[in-house]
Amino acid sequence: MRLTILGGGGFRVPLVYQALLGDRGAGRITSVMLYDTDRARLSSIGAVLRQQAARYSDAPVVTETTDLDEALRGSDFIFSAIRVGGLEGRTIDERVALDLGVLGQETVGAGGIAYALRTLPVAVGIAQRIAELAPEAWVINFTNPAGMVTEAMIPYLGDRVIGICDSPSGLGRRAALALGLDASTVFYDYAGLNHLGWLRGLQSGGVDHLPALLADSDALGAFEEGRLFGVEWLRSLGSIPNEYLHYYYFARETLAAVQAVEQTRGTFLLEQQSAFYAETARRPADALELWQKTRAERESTYMVESRAVADAGERDERDMSAGGYEQVALSLMRAIAHNERASLILNVRNRGTLRHLDDDAVVEIPCTVDANGARPLTVTQFTDHQAGLVCAVKAVERSTIEAAATGSRAAAVRAFAWHPLIDSVTAAHQLLDGYSSRLPELAPFRP
Question: Which of 9, 120, 396, 437 could disulfide-link 42, Cβ–Cβ 3.0 to 4.6 Å?
Fold first, then answer.
């Protein structure tokens, strides 16, 4: 079977390949096609993958291309992890927002809207080519903002496109392990949108263990989200939020923390990864070692400003080893390819699961997966607070998708103005003007 990775020159691609190397079953992926528009990046990541494969006699064969049609033809699975505008675009997403006194995180708020506006047209174009050249392929979307991009691709690919994110499953596993539960046997009652959801239950052996976790201060403070949000606030909520909700619950503090540092997260990653690609070009024989060193630094500094606000300290090994999106992708592919039933938290059409949203809204919820794809499972309905926030952000997503599809400036301004982290229509106009003046992909939105 063949896996095509769109954005194959991306820094995190070796994580996916490493997961494939550990899959020793029959019917596994035997061929990996890397697609990217940047030949130099492809060469660097290709070198990392081949060094990863050196210890395996039957590792998936790696090929590289800058031709999209070549990449798509003959694919069984297509993993989409593109970054339109590169990390240079991310730094602009952050800086324009921060200069206007607004959070600029890459998937949340103003930065996420700007990222989506330039990404959605490309993602839709790719979906159209997949529908024509590889209609039987399953598409696993990790391109951010993942929920929005998945929803925009569904009209062309239907339920054969599924969005993934590692945050919900990582949260569930950390919460289960904090109570000493076998994480593989726990059902996570989780629901929301991508980067906007809550864990509302930990069900194992016919018992919901979440109340016990919320009552145990030591267990609750033993993992990332407990330290990030604080015991008192989690008990008040009666649930455990996705880590990205820290940007909503502690917006002022996080904005102040981000504005106080010399460089944004995007600038840090741009400098770090530029150095990695340059050094790998000079020392291709050391590509894997260079990648491992760079990745360790990247992971240890993840959400550093939010952890500083919460005085949560450094990430520990338990938080970083809870599993990543590559394991979600591998589990998803195996369930479909082998008709092995699995339960995974995925981004799929709502189909009546959550009554506050329509059937076609892409939501992030537990699903049963087999050869027929992903089907949502029954979960607890939203509280009023959860429903209000989710519906507000879904309206932002829908307006962003409309703006990207039509070029409507009015729809783009609505998207910015409606977001809970942007408190002014005037600021919405200023944000769009700032982004469209600096990002060539957003030039059509200039006044």
Answer: 9
pLDDT at 307: 43
Sign for the CA dihedral angle at 384, 386, 390, 392 comes to positive
Closest of 254, 240, 241, 228 to residue 105, by C-alpha: 254
C-alpha distances out from residue 56 to 5, 13, 59, 218, 292, Å: 21, 18, 5, 43, 19
Residue 84 CB contacts under 8 Å (≥ 6 apart), including other chains: 115, 118, 119, 122, 441
d(CA 438, CA 216): 49
Backbone angles phi, psi at 378, to 5 degrees: -70, 130
Bridge pairing between strands 196-204 and 207-208: antiparallel
Which amino acid is located at 249 in the chain?
Answer: Y
Q: How far is CA 40 from CA 37, 272, 274, 279, 444, in A?
A: 9, 16, 11, 12, 30
In tens, the pLDDT along 295-344 reads 888 776 655 555 456 555 555 555 444 457 788 999 999 999 999 899 99
The mean pLDDT of 141-166, rounded to a whole number, is: 97
Q: Using CA atoms, how far apart are residues 305 and 303, in angstroms rounded to an integer?
A: 6
As a whole number of angstroms, the distance between CA 230 and CA 170 comes to 18
Q: How many CB atoms lie within 10 A of CB 105?
A: 28
Instruction: Look at residue 358 and give its three-state secondary structure.
Output: coil
Q: With pLDDT > 70 as the criterion, what percentage of the chain qualifies?
A: 94
77-81, 139-143, 262-266, 359-363: the lowest-pLDDT one:
262-266
CA distances (Å), 126 to each of 35, 89, 115, 139, 147, in order? 12, 20, 17, 11, 16
Range 261-264, long-range pairs (CB < 8 A, 24+ positions):
261/305, 264/91, 264/94, 264/95, 264/98, 264/104
Give the whole-angstrom CA distance, residue 62 versus residue 32: 5
**Residue 142 or 302, more confident:** 142
Cα separations in angstroms, 43 against 20, 262, 271, 282, 380: 20, 32, 19, 12, 47
Q: How many angstroms separate the CA atoms of 91 and 159, rounded?
A: 33
Are 343 and 168 in contact by the 8 Å Cβ rule? The answer is no
pLDDT 10s digits, 67-124: 999 999 999 999 999 999 999 999 999 999 999 999 989 899 999 999 999 999 999 9
